[in-house]
């Protein structure tokens, strides 16, 4: 298992949190995704054999948020 913290701009509410966590959790290989709205980040635990950092970034950006 690997862990990564991704900085995300534009998340302000519970809907934002749900959208980002939901998009990441749909990816095969994601064990957990936890958004911290105050810190503008999401902590992801994942199987690096199944999912790439670029696919995680793409999933977040597809929801309308900017990855720093």
TrEMBL record:
<keyword id="KW-0186">Copper</keyword>
<dbReference type="Pfam" id="PF00403">
    <property type="entry name" value="HMA"/>
</dbReference>
<dbReference type="InterPro" id="IPR000428">
    <property type="entry name" value="Cu-bd"/>
</dbReference>
<dbReference type="InterPro" id="IPR036163">
    <property type="entry name" value="HMA_dom_sf"/>
</dbReference>
<comment type="function">
    <text>Chaperone that serves for the intracellular sequestration and transport of Cu(+). Delivers Cu(+) to the copper-exporting P-type ATPase A (CopA).</text>
</comment>
<keyword id="KW-0963">Cytoplasm</keyword>
<dbReference type="InterPro" id="IPR049740">
    <property type="entry name" value="CopZ"/>
</dbReference>
<dbReference type="InterPro" id="IPR006121">
    <property type="entry name" value="HMA_dom"/>
</dbReference>
<dbReference type="InterPro" id="IPR017969">
    <property type="entry name" value="Heavy-metal-associated_CS"/>
</dbReference>
<keyword id="KW-0143">Chaperone</keyword>
<feature type="domain" description="HMA">
    <location>
        <begin position="2"/>
        <end position="68"/>
    </location>
</feature>
<dbReference type="InterPro" id="IPR006122">
    <property type="entry name" value="HMA_Cu_ion-bd"/>
</dbReference>
<protein>
    <recommendedName>
        <fullName>Copper chaperone CopZ</fullName>
    </recommendedName>
</protein>
<keyword id="KW-0479">Metal-binding</keyword>
